């Protein structure tokens, strides 16, 4: 998929905001904000996952120092000369990548570092980081440990909110020693108006897509760009928040809730004024884990909307698709229903 089919670079006066305001040329909404210390948080999270597949969490346990330490190390890396950064690549799929997103022709206005992670520390030998790499890896592992805990706590609150037993039925997938989770640092340098006019295909920082894993935990610096797509197809911008985290429902969680939760499509627009740095933890299950609607959640007579698959099968399938493809479409069931005496397939 070509990441952008038409020029859509927007300056700060045209980018949609998430304040409760409607105008003639764009639409905005309030992004759900969940206080992790609120006794009712589990119910608010469940509602946000059903309506948006996306929400912001505040009052989390990750110290500001952990966030700023990793951001500082990431900035140092992305400020290196190109020849030095290239030593950490090419991404295959882990390591340093530049503009290319995956292996199927998708490109973006981006450079990134992608690491594999599980319940153990990310190995310093996994990617060659120039300079004082020890400080870099310490910052990465401290940060990943913190956001993994957020992801697991959110999943346990989801289980409570949906009255699923046991409470750790979802979080144990991420805490498993064979968890196929990963972590990515994204850097988008400013895109000037001249570059926007001469290179239309690079106007999108990261093209629209869903995350295939169970759950993602995202933060960025104070630069706009992130947008989510509502169920009616409307794109809305998400105001950045330096010290809060955004939670994204992944394809696997949509399947495990039998479509109750929604894997939200999202993208990043190039910014014409400032560089954007984002950090994303993708919480994935073990490759052998079976992905199917949870039996404890299914109501009497409810049919599964999806064929059962392993995470390894779905991951392999996802790598063969373009960024914006509907990956779950290959695993959706044709369900026979009876209506007015006729059998219909949906």
TrEMBL record:
Keywords: Dioxygenase, Iron, Metal-binding, Oxidoreductase, Vitamin C. Catalyzes the 2-beta-hydroxylation of several biologically active gibberellins, leading to the homeostatic regulation of their endogenous level. Catabolism of gibberellins (GAs) plays a central role in plant development. Converts GA9/GA20 to GA51/GA29 and GA4/GA1 to GA34/GA8. InterPro entries: DIOX_N, IPNS-like_FE2OG_OXY, IPNS-like_sf, Iron_ascorbate_oxido_reductase, Oxoglu/Fe-dep_dioxygenase_dom. Pathway: Plant hormone biosynthesis; gibberellin biosynthesis; Hormone biosynthesis. The keyword Iron applies. GO terms for molecular function: gibberellin 2-beta-dioxygenase activity; L-ascorbic acid binding; metal ion binding. GO terms for biological process: coumarin biosynthetic process; gibberellin catabolic process; response to light stimulus; response to molecule of fungal origin. It is an enzyme of class 1 (oxidoreductase). Belongs to the iron/ascorbate-dependent oxidoreductase family. GA2OX subfamily. Signal peptide: none annotated. This is gibberellin 2beta-dioxygenase. It catalyses: gibberellin A1 + 2-oxoglutarate + O2 = gibberellin A8 + succinate + CO2. Residues 178-285 form the Fe2OG dioxygenase domain. Its EC number is 1.14.11.13. It comes from Nicotiana tabacum (Common tobacco).
């Amino acid at each position: 998929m070509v990441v952008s089919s038409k020029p859509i670079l927007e300056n700060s006066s045209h980018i949609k905001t998430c304040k409760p305001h409607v105008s003639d040329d764009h639409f905005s909404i309030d992004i759900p904000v969940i206080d992790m210390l609120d006794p009712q948080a589990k119910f608010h999270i469940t509602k946000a996952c059903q309506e948006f597949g996306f929400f912001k969490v505040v009052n989390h346990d990750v110290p500001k120092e952990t966030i700023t330490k990793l951001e500082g190390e990431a900035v140092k890396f992305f400020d290196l000369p190109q020849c030095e950064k290239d030593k950490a690549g090419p991404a295959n799929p882990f390591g340093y990548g530049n503009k290319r997103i995956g292996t199927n022709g998708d490109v973006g206005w981006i450079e990134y570092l992608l690491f594999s992670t599980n319940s153990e520390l990310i190995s310093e030998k996994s990617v060659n980081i120039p300079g004082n790499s020890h400080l870099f890896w310490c910052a990465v592992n401290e940060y990943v440990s913190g956001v993994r805990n957020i992801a697991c706590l959110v999943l346990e609150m989801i289980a409570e909110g949906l009255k699923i037993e046991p409470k750790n039925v979802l979080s144990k997938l991420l805490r498993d020693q064979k968890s196929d989770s990963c972590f990515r640092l994204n850097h988008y340098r400013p895109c000037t108006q001249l570059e926007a006019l001469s290179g239309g295909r690079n106007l999108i920082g990261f093209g629209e897509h869903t995350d295939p894993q169970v759950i993602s935990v995202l933060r960025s610096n104070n630069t706009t760009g992130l947008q989510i797509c509502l169920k009616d197809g409307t794109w809305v911008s998400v105001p950045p928040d330096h010290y809060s985290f955004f939670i994204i429902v992944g394809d696997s969680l949509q399947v495990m809730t039998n479509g109750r939760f929604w894997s939200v499509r999202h993208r990043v627009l190039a910014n014409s004024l400032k560089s954007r740095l984002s950090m994303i933890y993708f919480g994935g299950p073990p490759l052998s884990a079976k992905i199917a609607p949870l039996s404890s959640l299914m109501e009497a007579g409810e049919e599964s909307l999806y064929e059962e698959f392993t995470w390894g099968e779905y991951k392999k399938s996802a790598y063969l698709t373009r960024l914006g493809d509907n990956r779950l479409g290959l695993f959706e069931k044709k369900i026979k229903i009876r209506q007015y005496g006729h059998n219909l397939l949906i």
